[in-house]
Each structure stands twice: as C-alpha cells, then as structure tokens.
Amino acid sequence: MENQSVEHRAIHLVSHCINYRRLCLLCFFFSFSILAAEAAEYIVTPAPNDQFGVSVAGEDIQIVEDTITPYWQFLLWLAAMQILSIIDVVLYFIKLIFVILGFKIVNKENVLDNPDRSIIYTYIKTKPGAFIDEIVEKTGFGRGRVRHHITILEVQNKIEVHKDGRKIRYFENNSTYDEEERKIISALQNITSQRIISEIQNGNCNTNSALAHEIGVSRATISWYMRTLKEVELINEEREGKNIIYRVNPTYENLIEKYG
C-alpha cells in the first residue's frame, strides 16, 4: 500500500513538473513571437545631401528610430532558460530515484503493464457501468487496491466516471459511450429495474399495482423506480381510463437486450 501511495504521488508530481515546463515554454515563445512580429527589414543608403529627412526623388520619407531591447527582457529570457533547465534536472533525478527504489513512473504507454490494473481495466471494459463494490467482489482484490488502480486509470484517461445517484460507475474511455448511453446502462445495472423492464416486455404486468404484486414490493417502490426509468426515457407511460400503462421505449430495445 505504501508503494501504491508513493507511485500515486509520483504521477502527480511528474505531471505538475511537465505542466510547469510547458507553461514556461509557451510564455517564452509567446514573448519571442511578439518581438519577431514587430521586426521589419530596412535597407539604409547614404543620403546624397546633408539635409535630414528631405526627399531626393519624390519618394516617401519615414524616419525610423533605433530600438534597443530592454535589459529586463534579456533577464526574462535568461531566467526562463534557467527554469527550464532546472525542471529537466529535477525530472531526471526524480526518475532516477524511483528507478533506484524499484518504483515505476506510470504513463499512458505502460499504465496497463501492472497485472492487477490490467485485470480491473479489462473488467470495466467488458462490464460497463461497474462500481467499486462489484469490482472488489469479482476480482477478489482489496478495496484500497481497487481504488488505487482506478485512480491511476482515471489520471491516464483510460476510464471515465458516471455518477448514478449515490453510486459511482466506471466506463471505458476513448468516447466509447456517450452521456445518454452511460445513463441507460447505469439504470439497467439495477436488479429491480431489470425485473420491471422484463415484466413489461413480457406483457405480464404494465401497471403500478400489477408490477408491485408480481415483484413483491410496495407500489411506492415501483413509483420510485419508474421515475428513474422515465428520466432516462427507457419507459413511456400512457393513461388508459383510470390506469397508467407502462411500455418500454422501442428506441432503446437493442441497448436493453445488450446490457439488461
């Protein structure tokens, strides 16, 4: 656990150093580009007479003043170069220290080299919408270990987070799922929601009271789940006389079949 904590801090430290270095480079090149944009090419030839600023052949005369680069700009450039070189040295020694101590700095190229982390990522990839307790149960890893590897996967943009009420669910990144799909998949992970949708699809029950009787819960419980299912548009409702009839939205039948 201590190694995991050090590894996690090392990721953030190196990330901050790299960001500072990029910021310094950006500021330097921005300042340089401004000065370069002000520069222009001039051809200076001796005047044929001694009168200053007088046209010889009718050409336009423009008096150009000499410009001198302020000393503070030179000091600024010098300081920027020193800072960049110091950051390089610091990064080098950080990497060297962790190599000597047997630690490995994680980046996008080697993030899945850790076997435990690879198992967790593979589970999230094959079971979109997984949450911490589920991952702990299915992988057999401790909760602290799972949280540690999930944090690293988030930092390296391998997974993304979706909040489903009080639960936090995890999905593969790389734009695999849009926001609408994440909401629907998250709703389908609940066992009671799955049972409600199944009963409606099978034509066994399509009213609040019938679903409550069949599933064995109160009508208030069915109403609570229905609000969630209607929010993500998985369920449509229609009024027939005094009854409200529930039907599955046909638009999402493929997603229901795949993830339900």
From TrEMBL:
- UniProt keyword rRNA processing present: no
Q: Which SMART domains match?
A: HTH_ARSR (SM00418)
Record domain HTH arsR-type: where: 173-260
Keyword list (alphabetical) reads: Membrane, Transmembrane, Transmembrane helix
Indicate yes or no for the key word RNA-binding: no
* One term of GO molecular function: DNA-binding transcription factor activity
Which Pfam family is an annotated match for this chain, by its short name?
Answer: HTH_HVO_0163_N
Matching entries from InterPro entries are given as: ArsR-like_HTH, HTH_ArsR_DNA-bd_dom, HTH_HVO_0163_N, WH-like_DNA-bd_sf, WH_DNA-bd_sf
Transmembrane segments annotated in the record for this chain: 74-94
Query: What name does the UniProt record give this protein?
Result: Winged helix-turn-helix transcriptional regulator
Give the species this sequence originates from: Methanosarcina mazei
